[in-house]
Specification:
Residues 21-72 form the DOT1 domain. The chain is α/β, with parallel strands linked by helices and 167 residues long. It has two domains: 23-85, Rossmann fold; 96-167, Translation Initiation Factor IF3. The protein is 26% helix and 25% strand. The protein contains four helices and seven strands, in the order E-H-E-H-E-E-H-E-H-E-E. The protein has a seven-stranded mixed beta sheet. A hairpin with a 5-residue loop joins strand 6 and strand 7. The longest helix is centred in the N-terminal third of the chain and has 13 residues, at 37-49. The chain is globular.
Length: 167
């Protein structure tokens, strides 16, 4: 453990490529986007960072329908709501509001992410939780203390996929 972070890999951040940055080449996904964040988070990323593609994924049908209705008022070619099936997510940057995910959902998502080519993962779960669920390729590089609009405190972890880290 270094500075309170669990360390699985030693990082050498000199000369890292721009693949870690959110740029026009990036593809961003919000997993568990709910019904409001799709417009707020995904649209913000699409417009501010100018990413190539921004997608919200929601598994609860009623929330997905509300998000689709909300998005009708805001047209943007880079924003999509999708039903996604398959064994991996093809996105460079993954945001997961996973505070309410069950152990079963966490294990399923860990299996999908383990096979995915993402570069950056933003999550509210600790590294040890991800590692226990089988997502062994991630290493925390930062943590942020945040407050919700209801003043609830939470910690957000920033991870990188070690498959893409300079060696």
């Amino acid at each position: 453990m270094v500075d309170g972070l669990m360390i699985r890999y030693r990082l050498h951040p000199v000369g890292w490529p721009s693949c870690w940055d959110l740029t026009r080449r990036s593809c961003f996904v919000d997993v568990g986007s709910g019904y409001g964040k799709v417009v707020v988070v995904v649209m913000h990323v699409a417009l501010e960072a100018g990413v190539r593609r921004a997608v919200g994924i929601e598994c609860v049908i009623s929330r997905h329908q509300i998000a689709c209705h909300s998005l009708q008022d805001v047209q943007h070619t880079h924003v999509q709501l999708q039903c996604v099936t398959g064994s991996h997510l093809d996105f460079s940057h993954v945001y997961v509001f996973d505070r309410v995910f069950s152990p079963t959902t966490m294990a399923s998502l860990a299996r999908v992410l383990q096979r995915s080519p993402f570069r950056v993962l933003v999550s509210y779960r600790t590294a040890s939780e991800w590692w226990e669920h089988g997502l062994s390729v991630v290493q925390p590089v930062a943590k942020l203390r945040l407050s919700s609009t209801g003043k609830e405190g939470m910690t957000c972890w920033i991870y990188i996929n070690m498959r893409y880290a300079p060696r």
